Amino acid sequence: MASMKLIVPLLCRYISIAISLFQSLVLCLFDNFDYPILINLADAFLSLYFITFCDLRPITIDLNDGETTVHFWVSGHRRINRPDLVMLHGYGGNSKWQFIHQVTDLSKSFNLFIPDLVFFGKSHSRNTERTVEFQARSVVGGLKRLGCSEGGLAVYSISYGGFVAYRIAKIWPEMIERLVIVSSGVGFTQQQKMTEMKKHGGDVSEILVPRSPRDLRMLVRISMNSGIAFIDWVPDFILSQFIAVMYETNRKELVELAKNLLEREEDAEFYAISQKTLIIWGDKDEVFPLEHGRRLHRHLPNSSIEILKDIGHGVNIEAPTTLNNLITSFVLDVS
Fold first, then answer.
1. Of 277, 329, 283, which is closest to residue 162 (Cα–Cα)?
2. Which stretches make up the AB hydrolase-1 domain (predicted)?
3. What is the largest CA-CA distance in the chain?
């Protein structure tokens, strides 16, 4: 028994030393390593996952404007007995990283069309316009090139993607049959948008387009109500690599997109859409608080609203299964 009392503290000490050496080795290997190999590797695995397990294929579309290229993930086998579902992401990375928890389930029920919005992921343009209308035109142009010009589409959108989806539904109503809006401040006045952003301090570039691991951690904490403890355990060098891959190439354009969104005043007819709409909101959303979801619901006579308890802005991360079930039931009209 006495020997055990000596061995246990000694073993704990050796384990502690081993962990410290491992941490030092990792820092030596990666802390000053500029090339974001880990995130690029993870991104490649996500592509493989989309192709192998979700039957999705990457397609790059050059639009007729001669300036814009839109990258899509689309179902490899488009089945005529399945509805077409367009998925529009928000800020926080490209479409793969935002929809990783959803594509497996949704690909079983729908033909999926998942674009990277312009200046996100592999979509880019020489056009200097930074409006939501420009994003909407680019998505619609790509969809038409993919054979989706006859209408009957369902669109699921989250956050920034909701602004784009709403514009598509308004400008091209014949294309959209059903619309799902998740945690998106469509219809906000300029003052309302600025008020919400000021609550968190800093300007839009620091919040939506992070420069440092600290900024990225802040974005995660603002966006999620649960499951955020992990962000404190992720080493700075990994977060820095994520920022390098997701934001650095088009940082200027991403900041301009966000500022245009925040500074513009929505027009008085913004709510005039006729499509059947499902609004989904987390009751702990700190980006666009629930009161704005309820306000949007009141202004849309052909809408319903689902409120998710103890969920923040990042519904697609915090409650993907519930979100998938709501989308599927709504689009397939299952009671």
1. 277
2. 85-322
3. 81
Torsion of CA 231, 245, 322, 106, to 10 degrees: -160
What is the 8-class DSSP label of residue 116? P
> Who has greater pLDDT, 204 or 318?
318
Helix H or strand E encompassing 31: none
Instruction: Lowest mean pLDDT of 75-89, 167-181, 253-267, 281-295, name the range.
Output: 253-267
Angle between helices 132-145 and 251-263 in degrees, nearest 10: 120
Cα–Cα distance for residue pair 294/307, rounded to 1 Å: 9
The per-residue b/e assignment along 169-202, b for 16 or more CB within 10 angstroms, e otherwise, is: bbebeebbbbbbbbbbbbbbeeeebeebbeeeee
Report whether 68 contacts 127 (CB < 8 A).
yes
Q: Do 89 and 99 touch, CB atoms closer than 8 A?
A: yes
Prediction pTM value: 0.87
Q: Does the pLDDT of residue 162 top 70, yes or no?
A: yes
C-alpha angle 91-97-103 in degrees, rounded to nearest 5: 115
pLDDT band at 34 (very low <50, low <70, confident <90, very high): low
Q: Using pLDDT thresholds of 50, 70 and 90, give the confidence band for residue 25.
A: very low
pLDDT at res. 158: 97
Identify residue 79 by its one-letter amino acid code. R
If we measure between CA atoms, which residue out of 213, 112, 214, 193 comes closest to residue 153? 112
**pLDDT exceeds cutoff 90 at 197:** no
Calpha distance 86→165 (Å, rounded)? 9
Are 153 and 177 spatial neighbours (Cβ–Cβ below 8 Å)?
A: yes
CB-count burial class (<10 Å; 0-12, 13-18, 19+) for 308? buried
pLDDT number for residue 77: 87
Q: d(Cα 23, Cα 244) in Å, to the nearest integer?
A: 22
